[in-house]
Hints:
The complex is a heterodimer.
Chain A: H1 7-26, H2 33-42, H3 44-58, H4 66-83, H5 88-112, H6 117-135, E1 140-141, H7 145-152, E2 154-156, E3 162-164, H8 165-183, H9 185-195, H10 197-202, H11 207-233, E4 235-236, H12 244-254, H13 266-286, H14 292-329
Helix pairs in contact in A: 1-13, 2-8, 2-13, 3-8, 3-9, 3-11, 3-12, 3-13, 4-5, 4-6, 4-11, 5-6, 5-11, 8-9, 9-11, 12-13, 13-14
Chain B: E1 9-18, E2 21-31, E3 35-40, H1 47-55, E4 62-67, E5 70-72, H2 77-83, E6 85-88, H3 100-105, E7 111-112, E8 115-116, H4 118-130, H5 147-161, E9 165-169, H6 177-192, E10 196-200, H7 204-210, E11 213-218, E12 221-227, H8 233-241, E13 260-269, E14 273-281, E15 284-289, H9 296-304, E16 311-316, E17 319-321, H10 326-331, E18 334-337, H11 341-345, H12 352-364, H13 372-385, H14 402-414, E19 420-424, H15 432-447, E20 451-455, H16 459-465, E21 468-472, E22 477-482, H17 488-496, H18 501-506
Helix pairs in contact in B: 5-6, 8-17, 12-13, 12-14
Amino acid sequence: MIRSTHLPLLVTLATFVLAYALCASAYPSMLSTRVVANLLTDNAFLGIAAVGMTFVILSGGIDLSIGSVIAFTGVFLAVVLRDTSMHPLLAFALALMITTAFGAAMGALIHYLEMPPFIVTLAGMFLARGAAYVLSTESVPITHEFYDVLQGLYWKDPSGGRFRLIGGIMVLTFLVGILVAHRTRFGQNVYALGGGGQTAKLMGLPLASTTIGIYAISGGLAGLSGIVFSLYTSAGYSLATVGVELDAIAAVVIGGTLLTGGYGYVAGTFFGILIMGLIQTYIVFDGTLSSWWTKIVIGGLLFAFIVLQKGLTWATQARRRTTTGSAAHS
Amino acid sequence: MTHDTGPVLHAKGISKFFPGTIALDEVDLRLEPGEVHALLGENGAGKSTLIKCLTGAYQRDGGSIHLDGQEVSPQSTADSQRLGIGTVYQEVNLLPNLTVAENLYLGRQPMRWGLMARRRMNAMARETLAGYGLDIDPAEPLTAYSVAIQQVVAIARAVEMSGKVLILDEPTASLDRDEVQLLFSVIRQLRERGLAVVFITHFLDQVFEISDRATILRNGRVVGTRVLADVSQKDVVTLMLGRQLEAQVHERKPAKAGDTLIEVDGLGKRGMLEPLSLALREGEVVGLAGLLGSGRTETANLMFGAVPADQGQMLLRGKEISVSTPREAVKHRFALCPEDRKTEGIVGDLSVRDNIILARQASQGWMRPIPRAEVNAIAERYVKALDIRLASLDMPIRLLSGGNQQKALLARWLATNPDFLILDEPTRGIDVGAHAEIIALIEQLRADGMALLVASSELEELVAYSTRVIVLRDRKQVRELAGAEITPENIVHAIAEHDAPTEEVAQ
Lengths: 330, 507
């Protein structure tokens, strides 16, 4: 049965299908597996970060720090691999630990000091970006044979598409994210927090561990995103990925998650990412359009989805009034 | 009631202090298994403080709580839930974005291989809710169902999680009559199962309908525990209000009322106020009496359009008018001084002058600013007339004392030259001196030919200035007293008695 809470997800899906159909009718070659594979590869780091952002927004919060954390991770890896003989896998683990702890610390501040996530993560954004500058202001290239091995890993489709490792990591992240959000107690607590923090508290839920966990996930996935980004660009640069947090928020909202929290699906964010990637690909195919048209179309889509969400909220409230009324007269 | 097993919960000598006040003073509460125990008292009597001490939301400063004979000290609501004390609040404390089953099992979902077993959870929820007489699809979102059903789901959750004591804090406040019956059938069933249910409400009829015993609090102390079958509503009201029911003789001023100004015919709003009719003449003060939650404030708000009515009509000087927003009310020269002046009345950081001129300016529209000199003249006139004590007209109003704030608010509305003034609890929270002045002012305004409607919980005060008193109970007009009938005793009788014919028709 179709419920109104599913509607944003369905609209996202329909938008994706429609957008793809439009693209394919203009440029039939966009249907090739090569384009699909590139769509996944090019958006891998953004997709991974957007999974974390989905959890944050579902809980009614926001995380502005992820763009900086991605850049920090990239610079950290580049500097560590340049200056020490540490194996990249160990460096990865270290980076994930640092970013997860960073996210958890922000979550703790948000919960225990009852600070708005906006302010705390804004501070986190400056902190992480500043830390990246401290490590290096230059773009540091990464030249390690293990990176070449990882970058060389791909599965080649018979028709020519190369599905690379980092695209696979993104898809895997989404699958795990979907399971965690919808099939674990932690996931339910995230939704509960987004539905009403005070109520969730009165229902006896562990708010502290949930809030800290949410921002730890967001931080950790930003770290993973940073690793993927460094594999994608083979460099670490402190000026990279400025504003990626806003792209991630856009993907989450286009994916049908309510910005005020409580309603949405991790799977929706996946299609939000694909829609945004598709627009970019179309502009590349077209060749005559300025790449800024990507921003304009995404802006328009965001507006459309915000209006849709508001309309749905009104519709459910109206329905609630009528159901209450009919029960009273029965 | 079974006495052989001993009390489920026994709170002894609970004390709770807040800076400057004693919220609870050695309160005892004894809950037997299989009883519905009402907790009664006026606002500020300590009911919610006691509940918060029991549920761990507050830490008690003295006394002990025994649950099934074991001493317990719940540290948090989650803690008390685990111990067996479940609470359901007036506002449904469930999550609107989750399904019924998810709400029911939040935090204790059935798991399989580390993942939630959703299908099993839905099946369990359906079975559990069937036990409460609900045949609903638990996979639907909570908001697909009415408030009453949501309330039952909240009860089911509390009982399934805790299962010894169920505290219902004003669960019926937003339910209508049929929905209340649905809830009561569930409560009766739980009583059969041997639960101890604490029932808190302002609706005395409901207390007598469902409860076995009642503990009555006043000013943080227990003034009595009664088996309700043995007492009348009047006894309970007397205990709650703490008034000696002696006839007080008041000098009645002859009602030299003028023409009829306002007629209200069947004004009401479903779930808020049952249809109410009254007529007000110029130079008349009509008092609204009743317990907290009886519909005093609701009546004031409906007549001012602060809450739009959904039935009935209003006539001003014989002509039908529509008052669905305060703006319209102000246009008809109505004025309302709300009950909670801190949140609904004063604008704390604005100057006294700006606060006084606010309503007058609003009624003129922002396009036509009142000249500065006139603003000063108006403000100074009322400051003088009402004897508002202040250092300067420019000081922020929040710095004034409660009584002076109240007078400044009155000045705000008097500055609009109203024909009809509604005062909701005009003397709450102000000192004795200012109290007398406000009463004198009400007298003065009446003598000048204004029509006033005054809602108050102070019976003596109502008796002092009202030419007529309308008594409300359970959001319904039950009596109208006039002339010599207006005594505190008669008002208490009317609040407590079961004599309104509408009541019998409705039941």
